[in-house]
Amino acid sequence: MTNSRQNDAVFFEKAMAAVADPYRMSIIREIQSKGSIRCCDIVTLTGLSQPTCSHHIRLLSESELIDCRKEGRNNFFTLNKGNFRKLGNYLEQFSNG
Fold it and tell me: If you average pLDDT over residues 11-29, what whole number do you get?
């Protein structure tokens, strides 16, 4: 397997694992709805502790499905729409056969 295909395989595995969790899906939907959110918004949204929310954010960030922008003391999270398109295109191949 070429290095590019290996990198893609790792991306798809991490991305699908990230969206498989109901809390992370609610975070993704909230970001989509609002455009960007802060960590404290995620605590309020999910009702989870701040460390647990940070864990979910880290997994979403490592999956490359969200991006983080720091402004002062706040981190703002936005969707990485290009990677959502990449994931969607990958999954679409399974419906075309």
Answer: 96
When computed from its CA atoms, the radius of gyration of the chain, rounded to whole angstroms, is 14
Cα distance between residue 17 and residue 13, in whole Å: 6
21-42: average pLDDT: 94
3-state secondary structure 33-93: HHCCEEHHHHHHHHCCCHHHHHHHHHHHHHCCCEEEEEECCEEEEEECHHHHHHHHHHHHH
What is residue 1's predicted lDDT score, i.e. its pLDDT?
61
Residue 8 dihedral angles phi and psi, to the nearest 5°: -65, -45
pTM above 0.85, yes or no: yes
Q: What architecture does CATH give domain 3-95?
A: Orthogonal Bundle (1.10)
